[in-house]
């Protein structure tokens, strides 16, 4: 029997769509391919009995990393996030799952270097997975200084602390939006990639790898939760453009591939390379957002255009019609691990990078957006604040 709240909602209009509020569907079933079966023996071996630190632990990516790593029986797992409620949720979940004795939650902002160093002092991590970032393209587009501080300064603080504490490996979680970026968010993530690459090449103690992938189904700010809310309200479902396409992957599969990529080259009897590696997850064929919206509506037993209207709202600031996970100039190399490829993006040597990085951080700290845009463009020439997303069209060679 429905509760009184559901009955009232039905009278107010939700009933006309025949969708029960809270009804769930398996989003992975909406993808055009089945999820891969991934062997995580190497990742388990790398993390078992070790001290692992995850930043952004309360987010969609970070929390799934924590769930899977906790099952690997690490010696210690440190959860870092500055969002109290998000950290509370994953903290409670891990305790209820019986992992309370192996992890500690640290409410810390990665932009605060001194606070972060004290967390590293306590954790003494062997492996660091950096997932903390501002990721919502339109919000970061309009709050560039804050975006640069978290995505650039925050990443620098984490990477520097990892080196100071002699961590063995740092895994940086990046995005396909860092490739040929038209959004400010994508440009900041590319700068963080450049710093991880430069640090990896400049020394032989701490291994830095970057893992780049596209949209994760069900993550905060993604289209799936938005479409769910809109369908439950009776529509309309909003799509920015009829031709917009994206790469999609389930959260679980994405994190398993991240863990697989992080363990490559660290297996027994393998020489660890320091060549600024950027791994690219093979996300299959891209999917039109319009087609995905139709599939979601149909999954609820409804008819697109009849039961639920689809409305086009126009591209948002910084948004592309398509996303690239690598450039045409990248020579992708198979790694031997299904679903993980190795890209070869351009690098900047650390002595040249450091002063330019300081320009970005200084402008962000002063709140000077014009100077910040100029400093970011200096580091990532393909990004220009004047570029319009509408100028980009799907590029078949990058699918």
From TrEMBL:
Polysaccharide biosynthesis protein CapD-like domain residues: 52-340
A GO term, aspect molecular function: lyase activity
Pfam families: Polysacc_synt_2
Signal peptide, first to last residue: none
Enzyme Commission numbers on file: 4.2.1.115
Gene3D superfamilies: NAD(P)-binding Rossmann-like Domain
Keywords from the named record: Lyase
Record flagged with keyword Lyase: yes
Family note: Belongs to the polysaccharide synthase family.
PANTHER family for the chain: POLYSACCHARIDE BIOSYNTHESIS PROTEIN EPSC-RELATED, UDP-N-ACETYLGLUCOSAMINE 4,6-DEHYDRATASE
Record-given protein name: UDP-N-acetylglucosamine 4,6-dehydratase family protein
Source species: Hyphococcus aureus
């Amino acid at each position: 029997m429905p509760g009184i709240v559901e009955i009232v909602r039905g009278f107010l209009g939700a009933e006309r769509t025949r969708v029960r509020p809270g009804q769930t569907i398996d989003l992975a079933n909406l993808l055009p391919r089945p999820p891969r079966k991934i062997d995580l023996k190497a990742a388990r071996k790398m993390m078992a009995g070790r001290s692992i630190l995850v930043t952004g632990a309360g987010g969609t990516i970070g929390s799934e990393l924590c769930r899977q790593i906790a099952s690997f029986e690490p010696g210690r797992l440190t959860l870092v996030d500055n969002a109290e409620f998000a950290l509370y949720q994953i903290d409670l979940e891990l305790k209820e799952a019986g992992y309370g004795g192996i992890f500690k939650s640290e409410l810390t902002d990665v932009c605060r270097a001194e606070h972060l160093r004290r967390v590293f002092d306590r954790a003494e991590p062997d492996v660091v997975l950096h997932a903390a970032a501002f990721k919502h393209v339109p919000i970061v587009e309009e709050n560039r200084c804050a975006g640069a501080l978290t995505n650039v300064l925050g990443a620098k603080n984490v990477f520097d602390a990892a080196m100071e504490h002699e961590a063995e490996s740092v895994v940086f979680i990046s995005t396909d939006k860092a490739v040929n970026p038209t959004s400010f968010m994508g440009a900041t993530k590319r700068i963080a990639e450049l710093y991880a690459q430069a640090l990896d090449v400049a020394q032989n103690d701490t291994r830095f790898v970057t893992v780049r992938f596209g949209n994760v189904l069900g993550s905060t700010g993604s289209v799936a939760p938005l479409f769910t809310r809109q369908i439950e309200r009776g529509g309309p479902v909003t799509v920015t453009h009829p031709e917009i396409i994206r790469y999609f992957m389930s959260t679980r599969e994405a994190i398993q591939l991240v863990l697989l990529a992080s363990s490559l080259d660290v297996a027994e009897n393998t020489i660890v390379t320091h060549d600024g590696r950027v791994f690219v997850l093979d996300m299959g064929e891209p999917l039109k957002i319009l087609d995905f919206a139709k599939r979601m509506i149909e999954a609820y037993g409804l008819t697109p255009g009849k039961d639920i209207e689809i409305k086009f709202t126009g591209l948002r600031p910084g948004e592309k019609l398509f996303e690239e996970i690598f450039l045409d100039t990248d020579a992708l190399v198979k790694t031997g691990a299904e679903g993980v490829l190795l890209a070869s993006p351009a690098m900047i040597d650390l002595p040249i990078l450091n002063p330019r990085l300081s320009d970005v951080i200084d402008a962000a700290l002063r709140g000077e957006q014009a100077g910040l845009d100029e400093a970011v463009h200096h580091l990532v020439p393909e990004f220009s604040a004047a570029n319009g997303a509408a100028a980009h069209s799907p590029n078949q060679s990058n699918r």
